[in-house]
Amino acid sequence: MRVIRSVRDLRRTLGRDRDEGRTIGFVPTMGALHPGHLSLLAAARRDNDVVVLSVFVNPMQFGPSEDFAAYPRDEAGDLAAAQAAGVDVVFLPATEEMYPHDGGAVVHVGRLGTILEGASRPGHFDGVATVVAKLMNMVSPDRLYLGQKDAQQVAVVKAMIEDLSFGVDVVVCPTVREPDGLALSSRNAYLSDGERQRAAALWRALQSGRRAAESGGAPDVVEKAMKTVVEEEGVVLDYARVVDPVSFASPSGSGPLLLLIAARVGPTRLIDNLLISR
Ligand code: AMP
Fold first, then answer.
1. What pLDDT is recorded for position 198?
2. What was the pLDDT predicted at 91?
3. Positions marked active-site
4. pTM score, two decimals?
5. Which atom of ligand 1 has the smallest separation from the CA of 30?
6. Residue identifier of the C-alpha nearest atom 6 of ligand 1
7. Mean of all residue pLDDT scores within the chain
């Protein structure tokens, strides 16, 4: 496994792989790797000759009052997990390597970046789109692996890939969960024992929303069903919404539905979602 910290070395190494006809699968992360991340690496390993993992806690996608400084970092643990997952190249850039100019060019996301997560976290998706665009220019992957856990991120990145004409295939992997349904997240490390118990309310809310949707409930009924469950647990709801999974607009009468939830458990903000085919 090659551990690389500079863009120059990364290009040189992957250029050789590409010249020799090897396909490249790319998994971008912010580290503190857990089995959710490992499922993306396993999918990339299955599909490609070369697997590239990036670990970069991207300051641009955190708001000024968010948890950038406190975000979990575990370089040694991540390298051991990457090795065990059969990763070929780990890219671990410093912030100055990724953002050489203050006030330089960025990617701006339109409507999709300003609703839901984008409304609660202004600028977040510009940060995500910018770092993913930069990483794709550095790695030039054949395939990009993303988790369904971050459903709006998937929609934003897929749209950006089309809008900015990146020739990259996106592979979306299902959300990996704890036995009680809590979606794995690096931020779960912030939860106290009591908060950890209450955090499963997000998944129970999604299940309740699914039952309401499957028995023909209108979006407002489904949203109410989700809201009731989280509020019973003393978890503070940010939003519970039903949308069209591609446009993130209000759903039409037929086709799949995406149930989205964001809530605060103590000081920790968690998100989850559930795709329902109709
Ligand atoms: P992050 O390190 O949080 O930026 O996540 C890196 C990638 O892992 C993103 O594509 C996430 O959607 C994905 N991911 C995070 N948690 C999970 C999970 N529980 N199941 C599947 N994928 C996940």
1. 97
2. 99
3. 37
4. 0.97
5. 2
6. 29
7. 97
d(CA 37, CA 57): 14
Q: Which residues contact 84 (CB under 8 A, 6 or more apart)?
A: none
Chain position carrying tokens 């409507």? 111
In three-state form (DSSP H/G/I as H, E/B as E, the rest C), the secondary structure along the chain is CEEECCHHHHHHHHHHHHHCCCCEEEEEECCCCCHHHHHHHHHHHHHCCEEEEEECCCHHHCCCCCCCCCCCCCHHHHHHHHHHCCCCEEECCCHHHHCCCCCCCCCCCCHHHCCCHHHHCCCHHHHHHHHHHHHHHHHCCCEEEEECCCHHHHHHHHHHHHHCCCCCEEEEECCCECCCCCECCHHHHHCCHHHHHHHCHHHHHHHHHHHHHHCCCCHHHHHHHHHHHHHHCCCEEEEEEEECCCCCCCCCCCCCEEEEEEEEECCEEEEEEEEECC
Q: Which atom of ligand 1 is nearest to the CA of 37?
A: 8
Tell me the residue type at 65: S
CA of 96 from ligand 1 middle (Å) equals: 24
240 lines ligand 1 (CB under 6 A): no
Provide mean pLDDT across the span 147-167: 97
Atom of ligand 1 nearest to the CA of 185: 16
274 lines ligand 1 (CB under 6 A): no
Asked if the model's pLDDT at residue 104 lies above 90, the reply is: no
- Flag whether pLDDT at 278 surpasses 90: no
Is ligand 1 within 6 A of the CB of residue 29?
yes
Query: Which ligand 1 atom is at minimum distance from the Cα of 148?
Result: 12
The position carrying tokens 């995500």 is 128
Ligand 1 binding pocket includes 36 (Cβ within 6 Å): yes
Ligand 1 pocket member 149 (CB < 6 A): yes
Q: Whose CA is nearest to atom 5 of ligand 1?
A: 29
